[in-house]
Design brief:
The protein has 12 helices and 34 strands. By secondary structure, it is of the alpha+beta class. It folds into 4 domains: 187 residues, Rossmann fold (3-Layer(aba) Sandwich), CATH 3.40.50; 86 residues, Immunoglobulin-like (Sandwich); 89 residues, Sandwich (Immunoglobulin-like), CATH 2.60.40; 107 residues, Sandwich (Immunoglobulin-like).
Length: 600
């Protein structure tokens, strides 16, 4: 028994110290990227000048060092263009030489095969990486001359591949090149995996579209551009400025010391990639101060930076329903350590800007671990929006841009959680002012790691559709996806999107916490609960006593000795916790003092 007590004390002490350290540590997941490029014959019409090459070239040059990336070509079959590897000088050089092989000679458009090949390694583990699959295509699923085989392949993507991608944490970012692409499929791939979809009306738009998709797939620290100037502070080790141009022409940068930086500048710390439609300039160890861009300004120009002083935003859903509130929470880190020092945070002004409009201040909640928070309610209309969160620290500036797609909720989802039975009842309710409920069918796909996906046709009851789902075992997850076919009251066929539902332990924990907060407790309930707790405690005490007797039947328990040990351990834990906390706090304060001195 004493060995169990010692083990418990050691584990408790270890957990206490680790939790204190974890509270100040905010790490970003590693980036992993696979790019699928359509090389079917239809590209001869939709991309006659093969502008896929400069677009992929831009992507390759934008990828941060340390990212894991791979490139694939697909048509009737899928071939590896550049093997998955860590982005460095050698990988980049190899990729830039290989992308010249992008062609338009394929016979079919086998998207299913392409996804299968690119995601094969990812499906072996869930992991904590930031995984994105970028899919560029100009057509429909087309695997043979038999139209039924193509239809079956498309159905497998939706019913089998999407759940597997979700389980592996893969976000699908799709690019449709032409209006002939299967927009419904590409939108669903993006929507169900929390990815993003874009449409390029012509190949000339590919560079900008790829850049927008890149920003969805890979987080980049950046600074705002005001007019045609941007500010670089002492903490920035490197910056890359992307300048989009309407036609081939020269652009320049003016450094803080008034010197010019051009494509002809011969300096070891300057790299200048000049293409017809864009310039990408990278400068290592840049001079601190205000830099100026001499070129016709494009709203999509951006300055990306490498720095230890990061401004980060908690995840914001990419797809929301109309009138759904959006919470924006930001924080700062220095060398991956959360900054909570009031002396630093009080110097910072943060605003959020929607689609370039009015700026709204985000107040600091310094008492809660140095977080800045604001909730946007009823401010986002139907359609796509860009949120820019801009931080001004007087001696430095940072910017984070987020895009959100606001959809009209044609089908409302409600869920009821049964804590005792660990079941969830899902109810889908169509908007009958838009949808003809008599012409609507709903199929749910229930998937779980290591098991074959289960399809269920949802039962219609009255004006809604019901599904009962039993939770998986403790520590396991089920994902529910919905496929809806319906007619509008005008007779137009539509497929409304409903966000997937994740059923895991956290769902029941949240519901339990909510029930405890919401439900008032009267005297009878309190008394009943007290009796129940006392009874449960008594049973547990008896079980523990039985276990103790079974482990050591000959030696009676010396409860006075045990009490002394417990008291001593408690004193030790309090002392260690107090001095450990003081040490961690002092260490964090010293780091932040150094940071403040660098920025002054």
């Amino acid at each position: 028994m004493y060995s169990k007590l010692r083990c418990f004390c050691i584990c408790f002490l270890f957990a206490s110290v680790c939790s204190a350290s974890y509270a100040t540590d905010k790490k970003q997941p590693e980036n992993e990227l696979q790019v699928l490029i359509d090389v079917s014959g239809s590209m001869k019409q939709n991309d006659p000048r093969n502008l896929r090459i400069p677009a992929i070239k831009l992507l390759v040059n934008l990828l941060p060092k340390g990212t894991k990336a791979g490139l694939w070509l697909f048509a009737e079959k899928t071939t590896k263009l550049v093997e998955m590897g860590t982005v460095n000088r050698q990988w980049r050089k190899k990729a830039l030489s290989k992308i010249k092989k992008i062609h338009s000679r394929g016979l079919f458009t086998n998207i299913e095969d392409a996804i299968q090949h690119a995601s094969k390694e990812w499906l072996k583990s869930t992991g904590q990486q930031n995984r994105s699959l970028i899919l560029l295509t100009d057509g429909m699923v087309d695997v043979s001359k038999d139209i039924m085989q193509s239809a079956e392949s498309r159905a497998r993507i939706m019913s089998e591949q999407i759940p597997l991608l979700q389980q592996a944490g893969v976000k699908v970012q799709t690019i449709a090149l032409s209006n002939e692409a299967d927009a419904d499929l590409l939108d669903k791939l993006a929507f169900d995996t929390q990815g993003w979809s874009e449409t390029a009306q012509s190949a000339d738009q590919l560079q900008k579209v790829f850049f927008r998709i890149f920003k969805q797939a890979v987080h980049q620290d950046s600074v705002p551009i005001t007019g045609n100037t941007f500010s670089i502070d002492e903490s920035i080790k490197e910056f890359s400025v992307l300048i989009f141009k309407e036609s081939a022409g020269a652009s320049q940068l003016i450094a803080p010391d008034k010197s010019n930086v051009t494509a002809e500048t011969k300096q070891k710390n300057v790299s200048w990639l000049s293409e017809k439609n864009y310039d990408l300039v990278t400068i290592k160890k840049p001079k601190a101060g205000n830099w100026k861009i001499l070129a016709k300004m494009d709203p999509e120009n951006q300055v990306m930076i490498v720095t230890d002083l990061k401004f980060q935003i908690d995840a914001i859903p990419k797809h929301i329903s109309l009138n759904e509130p959006v919470k924006v929470t930001g924080f700062f880190t220095d060398r991956q350590q959360l900054i909570s020092r009031e002396g630093f945070l009080n110097l910072i002004d943060i605003v959020v800007q929607i689609d370039g409009g009015e700026k709204r201040a985000i107040p600091a909640v310094i008492g809660k671990q140095g977080l800045f928070s604001k909730t946007l309610e009823g401010e986002l209309k139907k359609g796509r929006h860009t949120l820019k969160i801009i931080a001004d620290g007087k001696t430095f500036k940072r910017e984070v841009a987020k895009t959100i797609d606001v959809k009209e909720g044609l089908v409302l989802m409600e869920k009821e959680v049964d804590l005792a039975g660990r079941t969830v009842t899902i109810k889908l309710i169509p908007d009958i002012s838009v949808i003809d409920a008599t012409m609507m069918a709903v199929e749910a796909t229930i998937s779980q790691v290591g098991r074959q996906a289960e399809m269920q046709v949802m039962e219609k009851k009255g004006g809604h559709w019901l599904l009962f789902v039993k939770a998986a075992g403790r520590g396991e997850t089920k994902i529910i996806n919905f496929s809806i076919m319906a007619n509008t009251i005008q007779g137009i066929v539509i497929s409304p999107n409903v966000a997937p539902i994740i059923i895991d332990d956290s769902l029941f924990e949240k519901e339990r916490d909510k029930a405890q907060i919401d439900k008032p407790m009267n005297d009878d309930e309190s008394g009943g609960k007290k009796v129940s707790i006392e009874k449960e405690k008594k049973n547990l005490d008896e079980e523990e006593l039985d276990d103790a007797e079974a482990d050591d039947p000959e030696e009676p328990t010396d409860w006075i000795k045990v009490s002394s040990i417990v008291a001593g351990v408690n004193v030790l834990l309090i002392a260690v916790g107090f001095f450990g906390f003081k040490f961690l706090k002092k260490q964090s304060a010293d780091k932040q003092d150094k940071l403040l001195s660098r920025l002054d």
